[in-house]
Amino acid sequence: MTNTLDRDYGFGSLLKFALPSIIMMIFMSLYTVVDGFFVARFVGADALSAVNIAYPMISVELAVGVMLATGGSAVVARRMGEGDEKAAREGFALLLAAGLIAGVLFTVLGLTLAEPMSRLLGASPALLGYCTDYLRILMAFAPAYILQLMFQSFFVVAGRPGLGLWLTVAAGLANMVLDYVFIVPLGLGIAGAALATAAGYLIPAAAGAAFFALRRHGLRFIRPRWDARMLLYSCLNGSSEMVTNLASAVITFLFNMLMLRYLGEDGVAAITIVLYAQFLLTALYMGFSMGVAPIISFNYGAENTHRLKSVFRSCMIFVAVSSVAVFIAAMAFSGGIVGVFSPPGTAVFDIAVAGFCMFAPMILFAGLNIFASALFTALSDGRTSALLAFLRTFGFILLGLLVLPIAFGVDGVWLAVPFAELLAGAVSVGCILWGRKRYHYA
Question: Distance of CA 364 to CAs 15, 186, 285, 324, 326, Å?
Answer without folding.
Answer: 20, 43, 12, 6, 8
